[in-house]
Amino acid sequence: MPIEETSLGTWDSLHREHLEIFTKVNLLESALIDFLQKRTAGPVAVNSDLQRDFLEAFKHGITLHFAVEEAALFPAMRKMGKTATTLVDKLLVEHRSIMEKYGKTVHAADAEEKRGILLQLIQELAAHTQKEEKFVSPIVAQMSLGQQREVDQTAKRLGYVV
Question: 58: domain range?
Fold first, then answer.
């Protein structure tokens, strides 16, 4: 019996982005915690640059990442049963919460409020990404080649490089 090949380049790309998110979030979280605990020896500008760079990358990267998950991957996952549907519902709530916190960082009244919200954002994003890696991957592995190709085609239509 031949082994069915897999096609889901979209999940592979999302997975690589999750790994990049882990790295960036860990670096930023460490810098923010040091700063909030007043242990940082470097200038405040370094911390502000790190925040700005993270928010810029976040704005450009996570928006498309979430759009691909929501329009391409999650609809296919919903077809995989009740457990997958429940997971998708939880992930969508987390997407909204993460984007809400991002909006709050943009409109924060001062730098201290912004750092606090940003710390919450990166902690929530890290937990969300870990959840996707742990629970989405097994569901994707159960998808048929046809389902995987459909996800890839939808992702490409959104401008996502697969």
Answer: 9-157
